[in-house]
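@channel sequence for tomorrow's demo:
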Amino acid sequence: MVLALLAAPGPAGLAVPAWSAAPALARQPGAAQPVPPQPIPPPPAPPARPPAAQEREAVVANELGLPLRELYIAPAGSVEQGPDRLGDDMLPTGAALRVPLGRQRLCLFDLRVVLADGSAEEKRGVDLCRNSRVTFGDPSAPLREATVVNDTDLAMRELYAMPSGAPGRGPDRLGAETVPPEATTRLRLGRARECVFDLTAVFEDDTVEERRRVDLCRQSRVTFGDPSIPWREAEIANGAGRAIRNLYAGTGPGGRPGTERPGAERPAGERPEGAGWGHDRLGPVMVEPGTTFRLRLRSRACQVDLRVVYDDETAEEKRAADLCAGAPILFDGSTIPRPPERAFTLVNRHGAPVQEVYASATDDTDWGEDRLSPAPLERGARAELVMRSACEIDLRIVFGNGGAEERRGVNICENALIVLRPGWVLAERLDQGAGALEQGPPREGSVRFRNNGPAPLVELYADPVGAPRGPDRLGSTVLGRGETLDFVPPEGVGCTGHLRAVFRDGREVDRPRFDLCSGTEVALP
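C-alpha cells (generated this afternoon):
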C-alpha cells in the first residue's frame, strides 16, 4: 500500500513517480521529494545591429546678447574640442547658424562658444538626434550694459566685470583696446538677469581700481578716478640739443600723481633714491630739440618731481617743479653729470698715412664719427683729439688701403700720448718712439686745471653764481697729483661760475666767481 503511494507502474514496466500520477496528493512528512526537470532556455538573440550613420547637423542660436567669435562642437566626452566652426566670422546676437557635422552614428555632443568679450559658455551631452537646435542664452533676459568713464590721467589697459560674488575677475572686457584718459567706453555684458556687478580697472602703470557691488540696473554709468583731484598742466620745453624719449612725473608714494594716501604723503623733492617713477607720460611721442610737450595730469599738489630720459640714455630730473606757475619747464641738460673733456695726442710712426681715427667709450655700441676728418694723419705727424669720456676708451685707426688696427680699453688718463707704430696694439707702453713733444696751451673757451696738491682731486663742481651745488663734474674720474685736465664750462653755467674742488685728504678749494673760459692753466689748490 505504501509503495502504491510513492509509485505506480508506468508504460513498459517503468515506475511512474507519484507526483506525476497524482499531483493533488499531499506530501508525506519525512518522505524524499523528487526534483522537477529544469526548462531548456531559449537560444540567445542575435546581437543588435548598430544604428546606421546619418547626416547630423547642429543649429546654434545666439541669444547671449553679445556676438560669438568662436564655436566648437565635438563628440561628448572628447578631450579635444575640435576646430573653430566660425573661423574668421562672428555670429551676431539674435542670429542662428546651421553647422553640418557629416555622417555620424553618434547623437551626444559637447558644444562650447566664446563671446566677443572673451567669456565662454558650454553645453555638454546635447542629443542632436532628438533636437538639432541648441540655444545659448535666454532671450527673455534683459541686455545688461554700462558706460565706463576713465577720469584718470592714465590709459585704462584692462577692464573686468563679473556678477558680485562670482569667483575671479573673468575675462578682460577691453581685449586689445585701451580707454584713453578722460574717455569713455561702452561695457556690454550681454543678456543677464543679475544687476549687481564687481568692476575692476587696470591702468597702464599697473595700478588697479575696483568698484564693488555696482547695481547696473539702477546706475548704468561707472567712473574710475577721483574727480576731486584737480588737473595740472605745464609746458615741457626741450632745450638740451637732443631728443627727449621718456617723461616721468611723480608726487605720490608709487610715483603716480594723485595717488597719495592720507597719512602717507611725501612732498615733491623728497623722493628717495631709486624710487619708482611710474609710467612714461610720452608714450610713443619723442620731444625733439627746440620743441615742447603739453603735460596734463591729476595731482593734489602743484609741485611734482619730473624726470626725462634723452635718446642718448642720459637722464635729467627737476625736483618739486611747480605746475601751477604757468611758466614752461625747461630741460636743457645742464644738470646731467657729464664726463669732462679729455685730450690725448696721436703720433703716426707707421709707414703710411692714417686716413681715419675712431675713438669711443668702452660701453658704446658703435665707433661714431671719424675724428680726423677731413685731413689724414700723415707719416710723422701729430694730432690732438679731445672727447668727453671716462678714462678708458676704444681706439681704431684705418689706412688708405682699408686695413685697420684696434686697441680696446686704452687709458687716456694714464696715456695722454699714443704712438701709432707697428705692434702698438700689443705694446706694453704706448708712448715709446714719439720724439720730443710739448703740451700746447688750453683751447679757447676753456681752462686747464693742474693738481699741485699733495692728494688726488676727487670732486669738482662748477655751477652758476648763486646756485646751489650741482653734480660732480668729474664723475668717476680722479685727477692725480701733477696731472692736468682741460675743462670746458658745462651747459647752462657760462664763463663765470662758482668753482669748488675737493681733494682726497678733505681739503676744499672754493672760488665763487671763477673764469672758466680764461684759456690759461690754473693750479689747484
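heads up for whoever presents: The two ends are 156 Å apart (CA to CA).
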